[in-house]
UniProtKB/TrEMBL annotation:
Cross-referenced Gene3D superfamilies: P-loop containing nucleotide triphosphate hydrolases (3.40.50.300)
Family in the record: Belongs to the ABC transporter superfamily.
Domain annotation ABC transporter: ranges: 20-277
Membrane topology note: Peripheral membrane protein
Compartment(s): Cell membrane
Source organism (scientific name): Nocardiopsis aegyptia
Signal peptide: none
Keywords: ATP-binding, Cell membrane, Membrane, Nucleotide-binding, Transport
Molecular function in Gene Ontology: ATP binding; ATP hydrolysis activity
InterPro entries: AAA+_ATPase, ABC_Ni/Peptide_Import, ABC_transporter-like_ATP-bd, ABC_transporter-like_CS, Oligopep_ABC_C, P-loop_NTPase
Protein name: Peptide/nickel transport system ATP-binding protein
Gene Ontology annotations of biological process type: peptide transport
Length: 358
């Protein structure tokens, strides 16, 4: 393998809400075996910014989201790096070292996650009202305890924020709601304690296009109203383009391109991001045929040496199988928005002008 020693962690970006530095996440797969599902990932997210994480199934998006909030299953561990978060009082803490009680307060109060698959996130025997009451009671500071009537009134206001009818939804059990309603109820629940960071994992997958649209529009409005930062995990590049200020492409556990949505989608400097974009079916009327990407991602336990994408890359050179490309900055921008790509040929302008992305 060509893995170099991990670089020293970069200093945190002072204005950033979240500074992720060199994060590795492992899963234990047997008594003596483990796989590394996320490798050396780093990025900054500023207050109010929204970042989309894109990439094929299994590239580590959910693992990264769960790892940032220490919500991994028991077999998962953040084994290296830092997850620096600027708290409401201005102090910066490493989420990895928060004690249990502090971690409980951090989740929901400062950072919340809407999980992939809304049904599984609800307890089927509890009503939506019970979910709100439990969340408030478990995570509000002791001194701030409010009456049940106050909490229900607050829950109703949150449901109205996501355009749900509180009279109907509060008394309902999760199975009595449609998929889109459940998803919106989950978003309202995640916003209950006014977190500064909201992580959404595929929040609109499996919803019809009109419901998707309604949720996306509401999320955009809410972000403007409440100024939370958002990490948005999705397969849907159209949604990413619409909702995100910036995009991070992941491949086999690594971040391989990051930058503003415009830089990554319109001036991409990584063949994998290009392939993802070119594999999206064109809108009606566009005669361009989408290109499929040959092969599949490598097994995490047997990554090829050098660039992990080399076996599938149409532009691979012999050196690509020997040297692992670092995520190098191509264009400096403020507030964590620099354009960076992990490709040995990223500087080869001719390569990236031919066959430009749609
Ligand atoms: N509990 C687990 N134990 C072992 N390996 C796991 C576990 N959960 C996930 N993995 C592995 O980690 C890798 C990343 O999985 P993850 O769920 O983060 O991918 P993803 O990008 O979210 O995929 P999708 O788009 O399908 O949701 C995959 O190879 C997966 O098999
Ligand atoms: S480093 Fe080489 S193999 Fe990897 S993406 Fe760039 S050109 Fe392709
Ligand atoms: Mg996932």
């Amino acid at each position: 393998m060509n893995d170099r020693p991990a670089p020293a962690p970069d200093p945190a970006d002072d204005g950033a809400l979240l500074s992720v530095r060199g994060v590795d996440i492992d899963y234990r797969t047997g008594r003596r075996s483990r796989v590394t599902a996320v490798r050396g990932v780093g990025f900054d997210l500023h207050p109010g910014q929204s970042m989309a994480l894109v990439g094929e199934s299994g590239c580590g998006k959910t693992t990264l989201g769960l790892g940032l909030l220490r919500l991994l299953p028991r077999t998962g561990t953040v084994s290296a790096g830092q997850v620096l978060f600027r708290r409401k009082d201005g102090r910066r803490v490493d989420v990895r070292s928060l004690a249990k009680e502090d971690l409980r307060r951090f989740r929901w109060n400062e950072a919340a996650m809407v999980f992939q698959g809304a049904m599984n996130a609800f307890n089927p025997v509890l009503t939506v009202r019970d979910h709100f009451l439990d969340t408030f009671r478990a995570h509000e500071r002791r001194g701030a305890r409010r009456t049940r009537a106050d909490l229900i009134e607050h829950s109703a206001a949150l449901l109205e924020l996501v355009r749900l009818d509180p009279a109907r939804v509060l008394a309902a059990h999760p199975h009595e709601l449609s998929g889109g309603m459940r998803q919106r109820a989950l978003i309202a629940l995640a916003l209950a304690l006014r977190p500064q960071l909201l992580i959404l994992d595929e929040p609109t997958t499996a919803l019809d296009i009109l419901t998707q649209r309604a949720i996306v529009e509401r999320l955009t409005e809410l972000r403007e109203e409440l100024r939370f930062a958002m990490l948005f995990i999705t397969h849907d590049l159209g949604l990413a383009a619409e909702l995100a200020d910036r995009v991070g492409t992941m491949y086999a556990g690594r971040m391989i391109e990051t930058g503003t949505t415009r830089d990554v989608f319109h001036r991409s400097r990584h063949p994998y991001t290009r392939a993802l974009i070119n594999s999206v079916p064109p809108v009606a009327g566009d005669p361009t045929v989408p290109e499929s990407l040959p092969g599949g991602p490598p097994s995490l336990g047997a990554l090829p040496p050098g660039c992990s994408f080399a076996p599938r890359c149409a532009h691979a050179e012999p050196r690509c199988s020997r040297t692992r490309p670092e995520l190098d900055v191509l264009r400096e921008r403020p507030e964590g928005l620099s354009h960076a790509a992990a490709c040995l040929r990223a500087g080869d302008a001719a390569l990236f002008t031919e066959g430009a992305t749609r």
